Amino acid sequence: MLKKYLAFLGLFLLIHFTFAGEVVLIDFAILETDLNANGSTEENGQSRSIAIENWEVQLSPNARTVRSLNLSQTRESPSRQWGTVLGARIHFVTEIARLSGWARINPPFTIPANDSRFEGQGLLTTDMPIKDILITVYGHNFPLRLNLTLLNSNNETFTFNYGYIFFDGWETLSLFRYKELSESWLLNITEDNRRTLANLNASLGSIRLQDFTIIKDAPVSGGDYIVYFKDVRIIYE
């Protein structure tokens, strides 16, 4: 009986430590270290790297002016804790202070689904069930919301809601732990994220980062908003 129990325990531990764990989908501290190692793809006849300086900020139509488009940009930013991270400046024009708006922070091209050069740089090839998706982000006490959108190998999109980034400093955000949310909204987005994650797990093969989306609700004033991203990590069952 004891031998059977020990055998079962050994099998359980083997399965647990084989399949449970964490893997990086993208880490901006690594992207900046070697441009040639970052992978590139041909777009309009030009080779473009996924390095930080090539990332883009796309504004909602009601937020687009010549000034806001010029001011909204990404850049390599120094961090005492992490080294280099992705910094994004978003300018929501003051004229839309009573309207909602959004800004998508995305790579300069759609990350290829079947190119191993992009593994860990926005691409993850996996068939193991995902338990959680973590984002390491720096907030400045801005009352803005954060979404993350992923693509699968069939180019289907999966958008996850991380609630408000209404905090100061670095935080690791989870699909199921939020800050500054009412109990009713907490329940709603938790259930939404569970359904979206279940749909993603049903269609695994590869997942890719499509964008981070910063959302300004209608009552929030316009102006400049700064946010920093360090990484996105996948937690397995």
Q: Would you mind describing this structure in some detail?
A:
The structure is a single chain. Helices cover 20% and strands 44% of the residues. With 237 residues, it is an alpha+beta fold. The protein has a single domain (21-236), classed as Sandwich (Jelly Rolls), CATH 2.60.120. The strands form 3 sheets. Strands 1, 5, 6, 9, 12 and 14 form a 6-stranded antiparallel β-sheet that branches. A hairpin with a 3-residue loop joins strand 5 and strand 6. The two termini are 29 Å apart.
Task: Summarize the model shown.
By secondary structure, the protein is of the alpha+beta class. It is built from four helices and 14 strands.
Write the layout of secondary structure elements.
Blueprint: H1 2-19, E1 21-27, H2 28-31, E2 40-43, E3 46-49, E4 56-59, H3 66-71, E5 73-79, E6 83-92, E7 101-106, E8 123-126, E9 130-140, E10 145-152, E11 157-164, E12 168-173, H4 183-201, E13 205-216, E14 223-236
Antiparallel strand pairs: 1-14, 2-3, 4-7, 5-6, 6-14, 7-13, 8-13, 9-12, 9-14, 10-11, 10-13
Keywords:
4 helices; Jelly Rolls; 44% strand; alpha+beta; globular; 237 residues; six-stranded antiparallel sheet
Stretches where pLDDT is under 50 for at least 5 consecutive residues are 1-19, 32-37
**Radius of gyration using CA atoms only:** 19 Å
Roughly what is the average pLDDT, rounded to an integer?
Answer: 82
- Could you spell the SSE succession in H and E letters? HEHEEEHEEEEEEEEHEE
Number of helices: 4
CATH superfamily: Galactose-binding domain-like
Tell me the name of the CATH class.
Answer: Mainly Beta
Distance between the termini: 29 Å
